Amino acid sequence: MKRRQLLAGTAAVLGAAACGAPSGADRLRYWNLFGGGDGVRMVELVDAFAASRPDLDVQASTLAWGPPYYTKLSMAAAGGRAPDVAILHLARLPSFAPGRLLDPFPPELLAEAGITPENVLPEIWDRCVVDGQVYAIPLDTHPFVMYYNTDLCRRLGLTDANGTLVPLRGADDLVAAWSEAKKLTGGYGLVLDNFGISPWRLWWTLYRQLDGDLLTADATALVIDDAKALQALDFMRRLSVTDAVAPGQMLLSGAVALFGSGRAAFLFNGEWEVTTFQTQRTPFSMVPFPEVFPGTASPAGIARTQADCHTFVLPHQRDRTVAGTRPAVDYVRFMLEHSVDWAAGGHVPAWLPATRSPDYLALDPQSRYRDAATTAQLDPPAWFSGSASNMENPAGAAFGAVQSGTLTPEAGLARFKADMQRLIDTPAPV
């Protein structure tokens, strides 16, 4: 598989047409939003697929992550001139109006390709199905996890003989461990950022550990439990204000830098920084997000954690046919079969056969937090929720202010609820 330089910007062509493809060959147009290490790895996989299918003219393009990508994809789908297949965060599925901006996967093609529900976690597969039709095929789950510095934790007596972190459960035990780590590092015990959407990820993790709900099933009203919401926010404030084991003002880049340099023993973040720390040769490993509120974990002992999934979807095309969709399904099947290669970048494969394979289980630390996918907490279904959405950004601002100490938990919750009500009152754009 070849490496190419990742081209930034809208619609930068990543994959080239298969060399020597015969005149009139079928074409596969694929859009994604993967940059950095993810982007390079995706290029390699696209190239491998193209090499395996010289009968197809494979054209893969990357667009700027977040709102620019979703705006362009929705406009292309609304006009019926969308790519053949594209990446969509699963939590964004309701905003893409399945049946209008997205076409369902033909069931006969899925059956033919062996893409069936038993090969995906039920909780994830169920979110892909709307009105009995499959509108998304999950590639991965990317959960919020906890990184730890193995050298520092060994010196703190927090690892066993194999270098694995001993179980840390409950707010008091966790804060005590981070407090001791802060003394050792001379920096912080735990680092995390309080800008962007990370505070939302942290709050939703904590609130869902308490079994809190946010919206009614039809997303027309708030059902937030104030007591549970404030319990989660109190813990966030405790980290940076009350016990001060974490910084109150920190960008994600700063948190990653402090952990990578050994100035912090623990990091809360998505699992996609694996290759960053491997490249830096930071002594680290990873575990699922800890059980902050005891008694809330799964029977297997895995606590709930915020997550989303990258999925493949079929953006609406006016002239889409079953035969014309076959190359897209072939590509999806290829990616699922090679999802261990994708998982090297940190994401947990959604394809269960991949998670059981010796090659995946040999990935360290990637396979250590795979069970977090079983307790993944996606954003509640709504047109305004999901990764880089109208909900996560204001939520991050409100909860980040609590985390930094500039708002009380009560004020932060009131601000979040007001923002949520405005979104609920706003008609869906499609």
From TrEMBL:
Keywords, A to Z, come to:
Sugar transport, Transport
Q: Where is the signal peptide?
A: none
InterPro entries for the chain = Bact_solute-bd_prot1 (IPR050490), SBP (IPR006059)
Give a yes or no for keyword Lipoprotein in this entry. no
Lineage, top ranks = Bacteria, Bacillati, Actinomycetota, Actinomycetes, Micromonosporales
Name of protein: Multiple sugar transport system substrate-binding protein
Superkingdom classification of source: Bacteria
Name the SUPFAM superfamilies for this protein: Periplasmic binding protein-like II (SSF53850)
> A Pfam family for this UniProt protein?
SBP_bac_8
